[in-house]
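If it is no trouble, might I ask you for a protein's amino acid sequence along with its backbone structure tokens?
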Amino acid sequence: MMAGSPLRLCAVWWVFWPSVICPLTAGGGVRAATTPQVTDVLPSGVPLPPPTPVEVTPFDDPNTELLGQAWGARSWLARHGIRINMQDVEELWGLASGGLRPGPTYDGMTAVTLMFDTERGVGWHGGLLNISALQIRGRSLTGERLGALNSVSGYDAGRSTRLFELWYGQGFFANRLDVRVGSIDLDTEFLVSQNASFFLNASFGWPLSTSSNLYSGGPSWPFSALGARVKWTPVDSLVLMGAVTDDNPTRGPFYSDIVPTERDPTGTVFSTSGGTLFVGEAQVSGDVARWIAGKDARSLPGTWKVGGLYDTGRFPDQRYDNHGGLLASADSTGQPLYHHADWMMYVVADQMIWRAAKGSNKTINIFVRATVNDGSRNRFASEIQGGVTFDGLVHGRGDDTIGIAWGTGFYGSRAIGNAHDAMRLGTSLAGDLKPEQHIEATYQAAVTPYLIIQPDFQYFWHVGGTSSDPETGRTIGNGTVLGVNMTTTF
């Protein structure tokens, strides 16, 4: 989350056609389908403006990007309805203590996005074609050194060079109705907390409740899935969204020793196997201060969301095998009993709670996100996260943000029962399941309009969610992680 100053917005938002991205505040007439922010190709640690009752159009200024007008190429492409953007992320992480094996790692990513406005390009009103690709590199500190359930970074993913999204969007009724069809990533629009997205830990983007309970983590970064999304804005303060996609973006089994990026290393599987995932969300935005004290009060905007998902696929029981026996038993088949369908409900709240003066960019904002789902076929039955961000409070650094956040996920009843079975039967050294908790403190510095530096500190309790290392039986120490993220917009 970021303050809404022009410099800040231009540093992290890419908006090519202002009248496209903000049809609700623009004049009448049909607009192209909603232009996504350039940060939609990033998983988390994404600086976003604070929630506002009405979407604000950032300045369209290519000079805030490293390559500027790119020797006139951007202007020429713009006349033909084409916009190309590139972002590069470099991260260094180090496990200072605890976990499995202290030491450093590196990860990085380069994302390229191409958009084609059909009205400017071929005269077709309201259309937008979006194509994006990712090059992910480096090693996993979470998997190789820490052993945590919650990845320290959204970029802590399997190495690959891959297609990310490929969809066509069409706007109707001055873009109050927006439809996308193609290969879609859901976590850029659903389950999103604007304030939580500021943090680097991956769980503040796409939470543990979905990344662990769905096939391959569901249609979330760096994966997309075939489907459609509909977004309707009947009034400025209300947004209704729904999506239907394939539930298994990499076409793999629920449990596999092969990481998802190896099953689909190019992002071109376009799976139609498995079940169907339905997602719905309602968003309400408003200004609490002005509701209470009138229009002359300091604006304190907020956005509140409620939503849910339903998956028609087959999901493994967390305690019983396919013959009705205990999975923890030495006599078990090792194949879990599979149930039909799965569901999850969630709430998200982003709220500004303080502002230095009317119109000031010095603000304090909070977020809360909670999920709940079935405890028989999901390893994690509920999750809660919360945090606070401070914008523009550092003297002389009006575009910088400080944040601190916490999160944890709670095991379902059958996952807990399975752990007790394993201890009683002596088939596991892991011991009791304990909810892994993590806290993150981070500082984001806008060095230039196109360069963001973000040092980061994270601390983990009950690493891996168990009492002991399941392979050795030794206690896993609490993890202390230090890192830095550098994001450049070209």
